[in-house]
Structures are given as structure tokens and as C-alpha cells.
Write a structure and sequence with these properties.
By secondary structure, chain A is mainly α. The first copy, chain A, has nine helices and no strands. In chain A, helix 1 crosses helix 2, helix 5 packs parallel to helix 8 and helix 5 packs antiparallel against helix 9. The radius of gyration of chain A is 19 Å and the shape is elongated. The first copy, chain A, binds a DNA duplex through helix 1 and helix 3.
Chain lengths: 205, 205
DNA sequence: AAACTATCTGTACGAATGTCCAGTAATCTA
DNA sequence: TAGATTACTGGACATTCGTACAGATAGTTT
């Protein structure tokens, strides 16, 4: 059994510890402060350990991006589940998400953004990006029923978060809620079909 | 006269050449590829020349951010002038701006975004950020007449642009226009007062 | 127990980096 | 013309970086 090999499970644990440490390093000092040595020190492992688990520094960063995206999708799935149980509007989901990203989860959000920007120049990373993005859009589409509107809502909310990060602004919960409600109210009214039909996702931009 | 000193004007010219080269370097390889040597090579000057004009690398980056912000504000002022002559709606201005930023000006826009992100960890740069941001919001406010709506519109349009950059997506002009028109139509309807009253800018978030 | 394998580490090396400094050349001032 | 000022340059130095590699350690298999 591979899964119960004591060496492998410990190896996987330290691998994850390195990734978590990378997030902390990015959040603290930016992408440029990520080196094998800084991450190893933060994770409490030897320098060579990082090169063992991740052959090159780019591999380490890509794995960090994947890890962050995975947790993001997990939180997304949780939100979906809550919505399925009813009594949970799009505004609720988006508001709580924004409050989290700009509050307790802000450090990880910033690290995520820096990695996403780095992916602009690394085509190999693009698959991770589009997957998580499609996940978010599909959730919103589940509420709104229109792909175009879903994309617009996501862009706007994303811009709200990015903008407040860049401006080092910490909006209140009420500010977040007001922004989301204004935004959603518009597209909610404009939605052509509220029922969840089998969507034919267009591949055009 | 200081202004007509031949040495100084040439010095200022090469200083600007270095800043322009820095933008090109960032656009080509990202912030991490900015070194005294790469910028000097791109600008066609000696390595020591960059350290002469900018004592430290951080100074060079900050000056680059200021330079990019200045040109952005200049284009903003131009748009305002066009609007004053009438027959130029907010949707027109925002659409052309987005098309430019995501098209011919995309490289500089990406460089600008990377620098803006870098400012998150550099408090000394924040003044540049808030100044340009306030400029944009004031322009939108000129059309919409409501500060809150202006902020929301800016956030949404900004998110649209950032998102397409991260996704390496090149939206068509029609896509940009449709997004802007949907966005503006909402807040345009909701505007409480179209006339340009003397605004009392609130300092709250 | 013995052979094997996966994880981990100390150490090292060439390359690249930020920054300094002693000069040189061009221009201005008096 | 003589001196002062400004822009610019080649070269150097200490530091940090990515990465490789031989060996040590510990868990698994036979």
C-alpha cells in the first residue's frame, strides 16, 4: 500500500508544510521574497528539503498556487451546499466571501493575487487559473441563470476586493454588503431565466 | 538658469529613458526581472547610470510607478476635456479606456498593475496610489453625481480589466462596451442628482 | 536480518545582484 | 581661461541566489 507508507505520509505532510510556509512568506514579503532558503526557514525544514520536494523554485510557486486555489474551491463548494439548503441568497454568499477575503483571510488572498499575476507570464499555470475562475462563475450563474451576468458580477466583486487590497483599505462589513447588494440587485432584475436550465457554455470571450 | 542647463536637460532625458525602459522590462518579464543591469541594458546606458539617477532599486520602481500614474492621469484629463465638449457619455469614456488598457496599452497596464501590487508592501508609495485613484473616481462622479456609485463603477471596471489580464483574455470591443453599458445603466438610473453640486467628499471607507 | 527505498540534510559552487567608488568628460560660471 | 558643477562610466566587492550531490536516517519489504 502506497497510502499507508509511513515515509510517504510524513513526506506529504512536510510538503504541505512547505506550501503553507510559502503562503506565509508571500503574504509577509511578496513574491520576490520567496527563495528556497526563506521558505525552508519558515517551514522549519532544511534548505535542501525544498529542492527535494520541488525541483525548481517555479515548481514550488505553481504548487502553492494550486494549493491556494484548491482551498478556494473548497470554500466555494461549501457555499454552494449552504445555498442548496435554501435561505441563502447570492448577496449573502458574495458578501461573506468578500468580508472573509478582505478580513481574516486577507494575507492568503494577497498571496493568491500575487501568484495569479505571476501566472500572466507562465502559460503552464493557466489551467489552474481558468478552472477556479470557471468554478466561481458557475456558482454565480446558479443564482443568476445568465452566464454573461455571472461573469460581470464576478468581475465587479473581484475588482472590489483587488481594489481595496491595493489601496490598503479595510472596508466595513456594511460597505461590502452595500456594494454587493447594489450589484446583484441590478443583474437579478435583468436575469432572463431564473430556472437552472442545462447551460450551454459558450467558448467565446 | 537651471532649466536651460544643457547637462541637466540631458540628464532628465536619460532619466526618463531609464523609466521607460523599466516599464518595458516589467512588461516583458515581470517585476522580478527588474535589476539595475537589465534596465540599463534596455535603456542603452551603463549600469552605474541607473544607480546614479536612482540611488536604490526601490527608488527606481517608485519613480516608474509615478511616471505611469502621471501618464494615466494625463489621459484621464484628456477624457474629461472631451466630455466637457458634450456628446461624450460615461460609457464612451470608460469603454475607450478599457479597450485601450486591454489592447494597445496592455503591456504598460500590466506593468502598472504589478507596481500597484508592490505598493501593498511599501507604505511610502501609497500617496501615488490614492492620488490617481481619487482622480478616476472624481471623473466618474462628474458623470454620475454620487460618490458611492462612482467608487462602485470604478471597482467594477477595474476588476473587469484586471480579470482579463490575469486570464490572459483579450475581449472584443463589443464585449467591453456591453459590460460598461450594463454597469453604467444601473447606476445611471439610480443616481440621485445629476447636477454637479459642490461635492463634500466623505473620508469614510 | 538484509536489502531496498523514500525522505531528509550539510555543504559546496558558479552565477547574478545591489551598491559603492574613483575617476572622466562635458558643460556652465566668473 | 580657470575653476566649479553635473552627468556618466568601468570596475570591484560582499552577499545572496538556485541548484546539485553525496551521504545519513528511518521506514518497508522479503
Amino acid at each position: 500500500m502506497i497510502a499507508t507508507d509511513g515515509r510517504r505520509v510524513r513526506g506529504e505532510a512536510s510538503r504541505q508544510a512547505i506550501l503553507d510556509a510559502a503562503v506565509r512568506v508571500i503574504a509577509a514579503g511578496g513574491l520576490s521574497s520567496v527563495t528556497h532558503r526563506t521558505v525552508a526557514a519558515e517551514a522549519g525544514v532544511s534548505t535542501a528539503s525544498t529542492t527535494y520536494h520541488f525541483a525548481t523554485l517555479d515548481d514550488l510557486l505553481q504548487a502553492t498556487l494550486s494549493s491556494l486555489s484548491a482551498t478556494g474551491v473548497a470554500r466555494l463548494a461549501q457555499a454552494v451546499e449552504l445555498s442548496e439548503s435554501g435561505a441563502f441568497t447570492l448577496a449573502d454568499a458574495a458578501t461573506t466571501f468578500l468580508i472573509e477575503e478582505l478580513g481574516p483571510n486577507r494575507d492568503a488572498f494577497i498571496a493568491n493575487l500575487e501568484l495569479q499575476f505571476a501566472s500572466v507570464r507562465r502559460p503552464a499555470w493557466s489551467t489552474v487559473m481558468t478552472n477556479t475562475y470557471d468554478g466561481f462563475v458557475e456558482l454565480i450563474e446558479h443564482y443568476v441563470g445568465d452566464e454573461h451576468a455571472a461573469r460581470a458580477i464576478f468581475s465587479a466583486a473581484f475588482g472590489f476586493a483587488v481594489h481595496h487590497v491595493i489601496q490598503d483599505s479595510h472596508p466595513t462589513d456594511a460597505t461590502c454588503r452595500r456594494f454587493v447588494e447594489d450589484l446583484v440587485a441590478h443583474y437579478d432584475v435583468a436575469k432572463p431565466n431564473r430556472s437552472r436550465s442545462r447551460r450551454t457554455r459558450s467558448s467565446k470571450r
